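Appendix B, Record 12. Input sequence as logged:
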Amino acid sequence: MKRLFCALALVLLVTTQVHANNEQQPENIASKMAVKFGRGITNIVTSPLEIPKQTVLMTRDLGFPGVLVGPVGGVLMTGYRAIIGLAETVFFMVPAPGYYDEMIEPEFVWQGWGAKESQPMVTEPAPQH
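Logged structural output:
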């Protein structure tokens, strides 16, 4: 068991050193960590705005039932955005997911209010004579 632990520690040490040599400059890493930290704080503070956002989006998509369903979805999204914001704030030094990429889409609550993008309908080509 002791040999297995030593072997795993050695592999971890070697792979960490190889990965460290391929990383970006410290200035880039520090700025990406700062962006992740700021994004986390912003999402915690602005998470209650999900209630009106989801109400508007649901009403647009469903009509009148969206007025009833939207606030419920907004409360759930408020919790989700706040938890993601907390995770990004606490783990801002960790380069995950991706390389300090956002953990929620859209990145901020004020994004994604626009008109729903409609997918073009796929139609069969007209038969040619």
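Residues 70 and 80 are 15 Å apart (CA to CA).
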